[in-house]
Design a protein that fits this description.
By secondary structure, the protein is an alpha/beta fold. 39% of the residues lie in helices and 20% in strands. The longest helix is centred in the N-terminal third of the chain and has 20 residues. Bound molecules: nicotinamide-adenine-dinucleotide. GO terms for molecular function: betaine-aldehyde dehydrogenase (NAD+) activity.
């Protein structure tokens, strides 16, 4: 069967598909390596045009009543839900993730963000500050043009998570998806237009890092929201500083998942699997350092191995498939290098390994904290298990990393759960759960893992700024 997912054109600017004028950007289906679409990058002039168009469109968009803006977003959410099947299939072709996952986790979560921020738009108000005779008030204003730059693991969800709060607050956006997964953002642009978004408010440019850099440096851009690696985040944050632009940085992690001796073992094993093997392990917040209490280590590993053996690996479009390929040969090679380093450093391979072609099986190591597989983000299906006996010691070890995206713990002891969570250096934490990120809850990291928060009312602050107005109610008492 020949698969095709060719869009009308590579870019979407000013309410229209526009062909890119830059380098070729082939889109490959990760499962077969077959080319499913042939795109072109945006030229520097096209990036500039998209930003200019966005700056113009933003003024009118911001002038609408917030409830009208909100209505457009909730309508877009409804369209996404109606077309979820077709959109999820495209997401699977773009990313290689099993259709079983994309049907429930990708566009569905994007629709939830549009719905949430659509509803929130009209509730954002300022403050009235009494000052005796005089008074002051605040207005929460949009920033202007926001640049969104995405990673490849949840391309459509990322596009929605960034655009929903931005647009709700009256900003315009120019979005650059990852060069690996450029297709979903184009669908979002079409859907937003159909839902009533004025032309030019949401634009899509395509390209590799250099196109992203051109976007970050455009003079119209007031804010940059990036989802990507720490290395890219450092470059983008530095470039944004030049123009004093606001930033949201959703970066990488090497998050701890701590399983105490009193944990419900089946739940802890299930969560550890979800925290390492969902989306073939390509999730930023994954709990890749699984600290298991010495007393339950053997039982934990035994159950883990038995359940991993039941994972159905294969064709992502088969509804029975639970585990798909890695997004690209380059990413698979990086993961294999990390697995090789684990083996050569003496970590014990519990199951899995390098695999073949596009597939890397769910892999588990028993390792020690100093090994590279326990320190560096792999962004693939590689779980590193470590053991502990003492609570204070495991907290210290969990925090002994530059990252701080997420953390999880499993225990039945209520006081311990909250005591330990309070001490973990992570932006997003779970107790007796892992990797659940409902839109109602702020999501983001501390330390090298990022700045700012996505989702929830907290995101509103990252897509707006305060204007303060002092109101003089009497004469001006000048001493001169
Ligand atoms: P990446 O850093 O290679 O690329 C991310 C995006 O940045 C891409 O669109 C890329 O084209 C662009 N880019 C690269 N160089 C740029 C530059 N100089 N200026 C502007 N843009 C530039 O990341 P990736 O490989 O696509 O994704 C994997 C990484 O993303 C992992 O580290 C993962 O943890 C992280 N991630 C974080 C989150 C989160 O929410 N915290 C979510 C998903 C992925």
């Amino acid at each position: 069967m020949t698969l095709s997912a060719q869009p009308a054109a590579s870019l979407f600017i000013d309410g229209r598909p526009v062909e890119g004028e830059g380098a070729a950007l082939p889109v490959l289906y990760p499962y077969t390596g077959e080319e499913i679409a042939s795109l072109r990058e945006a030229s520097v002039a096209q990036v500039a045009r998209a930003c200019k168009v966005a700056a113009r469109a933003q003024v009118e968009w911001a002038a609408l009543a917030p409830v009208e803006r909100g209505r457009v977003l909730t309508r877009a959410a409804a369209i996404i839900r109606e077309r979820n099947e077709e959109l999820s299939r495209l997401e699977t072709l773009d990313t290689g993730k099993p259709i079983q996952e994309t049907l429930v986790a990708d566009w569905e979560s994007g629709a939830a963000a549009l719905e949430f921020f659509g509803g929130l738009a009209a509730t954002v108000t300022g403050q009235m500050i009494p000052l005796g005779r005089d008074w002051a008030y605040t207005i929460r204003e949009p920033l202007g043009v926001c640049a969104g730059i995405g990673a490849w693991n949840y391309p459509s969800q990322i596009a929605c998570w960034k655009s929903a709060p931005a647009l709700a607050m009256g900003n315009a956006m120019v979005f650059k998806p990852s060069e690996e997964t450029p297709l979903g953002a184009l669908k979002l642009a079409e859907i937003l237009l159909e839902a009533g978004l004025p032309a030019g408010v949401f634009n899509v440019v395509q390209g590799r890092g250099a196109v992203g850099a051109a976007l970050v440096n455009d003079l119209h851009v007031a804010k940059v929201s990036l989802t990507g690696s720490v290395a890219t985040g450092q470059k983008v944050y530095a470039a944004a500083a030049e123009g004093m632009r606001h930033v949201t940085m959703e970066l990488g992690g090497k998050s701890p998942l701590i399983v105490f001796e009193d944990a419900n073992l089946d739940d802890a094993v299930g969560a550890a699997m979800l925290a390492n093997f969902y989306s073939s392990g390509q999730i930023c917040s994954n709990g890749t350092r699984v600290f298991v209490h010495e007393a339950i280590r053997d039982a934990f590993l035994e159950k883990l191995k038995a359940r991993i053996a039941t994972i159905r690996i294969g064709d992502p479009l088969d509804p029975e498939t639970q585990y798909g390929p890695i997004v690209s040969p380059a990413q698979a090679a990086k993961i294999r290098t990390a697995i090789g380093a684990g083996e050569s450093e003496g970590a014990a391979l519990i199951c899995g390994g390098a695999g073949e072609g596009a597939f890397i099986p769910p892999t588990v190591f028993a390792a020690s904290d100093d090994m590279s597989i326990a320190r560096e983000e792999i962004f693939g299906p590689v779980m590193t298990t470590l053991t502990f006996t003492d609570e204070a010691d495991v907290i210290f070890r969990a925090n002994a990393t530059g990252y701080g995206l997420a953390a999880g713990i499993f225990t039945q002891d209520l006081t311990r759960a909250h005591r330990v969570i309070a001490k973990l250096e992570a932006g997003t934490c779970w107790i007796n759960a892992y990797n659940l990120t409902p839109v109602e809850m702020p999501f983001g990291g501390v330390k090298l893992s990022g700045i700012g928060r996505e989702n929830s009312a907290a995101a509103i602050e990252h897509y707006s700024q305060l204007k303060t107005v002092y109101v003089g109610m009497g004469g001006v008492d000048a001493p001169y």
